[in-house]
Amino acid sequence: MGTYRIAVLPGDGIGPEVTTEGLKVLEVLEQAVPDLRLDCREHPAGAACYLARRDALPPETLEACRRADAIFLGAMGDPKIRMPDGTEVTPQITLRFLLDLYAGVRPIKMYSNVGSPLCQQDPGSIDFVLVRENVEGFFASMHSGLVVGDQVATDTVVITRRGTERIVRFAFELSRRRKGNPVTGAQGVTCVDKANVFRSYAFFRKVFDEIATEFPEVQTNHVYIDAMALYLVQRPGDFDVIVAENLFGDILSDLGASLVGGMGMAPSADIGDRYAVFQPAHGSAPDIAGQGIANPLASILSAGLMLQWLGEKHGDPAATKAAGLLEYAVSQVLEEGRVKTKDLRGGASTGQVGDAVASRLR
Ligand code: ATP
To answer: Which of 7, 52, 162, 295 has a C-alpha 20 to 30 A away from that of 24?
Structure first.
């Protein structure tokens, strides 16, 4: 493979802090894996960019994203910076729509020493991927809901056959590749919906069942969203791949993160047929920005997802190998348990955690 062009959008708050560590680890990987070459270039986007230029996603940045092989994003938004309608800037969500990044991939994996609230769980026993439909569902109404006479407000759920077919197929293909949770043996795809109450979710389930017939070797299961909130706490080891409508996926991904150490441990990928954005699942966390205490592991693991995706897309063993090394280095640093940020009950700085992963790789 030639050189991968990576558009880097550090963003706001802790975004630039954790992105620095992700890039640090990628740089070490380039030295460790001879055939891996990355050309990482930073571009402005986010709330600070909006303040300076009245545009949270300037055309040059969008163009750079379209030209890139992958996009590596920090976090965006600042509650203090609002648009005229009172909402926060969310260019990271705009990108999903503009680049048709329909699959929100949220791996939820428990490493050692992360202080999960579920004390009965061993490392690795929680290892599932949440596949969130990213461009329709409740978010199809973004900025277009109705408020009538300051008395009634509505937003509409949009579920299409095309949108559901492709996200469900994505989930089945992922489950087939993953071959289940290696510790608990849980396998297959779970459809999360509220089909007992809403027609839109009954339709989502119907399309899920139709697509399931294309994958007879993959086990399937249905769970209502409310029951899923219960099961993810009671028996998270029973799940392999979970597919859900946009808002349900949004909520479950934060619940999932809480099971494995919090937002600092939750990487994510927003994937379409042509483009993909890789970013920690957390936001800009203004409450801890500028203190050097943000956990960079979600960003570092997102860099790993990027390498894995590049490896699969381009059939490139160097990128795949680098992804494996990165994950191994993170798991080793956590197993040693000495270098952890405050959210994981440690005392290390953001930079020290990045350094620990980098030196493990070296
Ligand atoms: P958004 O509303 O855009 O999702 P946010 O910044 O308001 O973003 P989250 O990012 O979801 O909220 O984070 C919630 C809280 O979790 C933060 O306020 C912060 O205290 C903590 N947190 C988030 N990310 C990290 C991290 N990388 N390291 C340590 N703590 C974090």
So the answer is: 52
